[in-house]
Amino acid sequence: MPKISAATVPEHRAQQRAALVRAAVDILAEQSAAAVTPAAVAARAGLARSSFYQYFTSSASLLAAIVEETFTTADAAMSQALDAETDPRARIEAFIRTELDLAAQGVHRPAAALMRADLPGECRDRVHELHQVHYAPLLTAVADLSPVDPELTAQLFGGLLQAAMTAVERGADPEQVATRALNLIHRGLEGEPRA
């Protein structure tokens, strides 16, 4: 029986799978989707190439798993943050703060790499679909405040949020960035014409 590096075989398998995913995300962020090959990912993870196929059938299946896992983690955190909030302004604030906390934790790193990558069409479509689902609570909260064009307003806030996330990922204090971003958003909402 092969030597395992965890208390149980399932834990060992989970660790190996996670190592392959981390390696693929690193390669994706540093190079491209085309560079995410079974051999490159296994080597980066410190595993034999054959180990790759115990967890994924192809590079495309690994990329698909990264897509799903990235958004599942972010969506769970967002759902928890928004559960207690009913006021639209409080929901916007919770959304922004949670996104910046996730950025500080590096949770968005795979999604950002995937959005920039030259993915197979099916993976790219799924990334965009999951991205829209993830941002739906922001759009809903903005729409509840009744601006003339809630979709455009939410897109503009999304652009501001992307810039804020980039600042946090580059080392800016998440609390300071959140305070500044929310100040700009609330000012924008105050001057927003109503439908």
Main features:
Arc Repressor Mutant, subunit A; Tetracycline Repressor, domain 2; mainly alpha; single chain; 195 residues; 2 domains
Describe the 3D structure:
By secondary structure, the protein is an all-alpha fold. It has two domains: 1-56, Arc Repressor Mutant, subunit A; 63-190, Tetracycline Repressor, domain 2, CATH 1.10.357. Helices cover 74% and strands 0% of the residues. Helix 5 packs antiparallel against helix 9 (174-190) and helix 8 runs antiparallel to helix 9. The chain is elongated and about 60 Å long. The N and C termini lie far apart (68 Å). The mean pLDDT is 87.
Ordered list of secondary-structure elements with their pairings:
Layout: H1 9-30, H2 38-45, H3 49-52, H4 59-82, H5 88-105, H6 109-116, H7 121-144, H8 150-169, H9 174-190
* Class from helix and strand fractions: mainly alpha
Order of helices and strands: HHHHHHHHH
Biggest sheet descriptor: none
Report the CATH architecture of the largest domain. Answer: Orthogonal Bundle
> Which class of the largest domain in CATH terms?
Mainly Alpha
* Average pLDDT for all residues: 87
User: What count of helical segments does DSSP give?
Assistant: 9
- The N- and C-terminal alpha carbons lie at a distance of 68 Å
Computed over alpha carbons, the radius of gyration is 19 Å
Q: Are there runs of 5+ residues with pLDDT below 50, and where?
A: none
**Percent range for β-strand residues:** under 5%
CATH superfamily of the largest domain: Tetracycline Repressor, domain 2
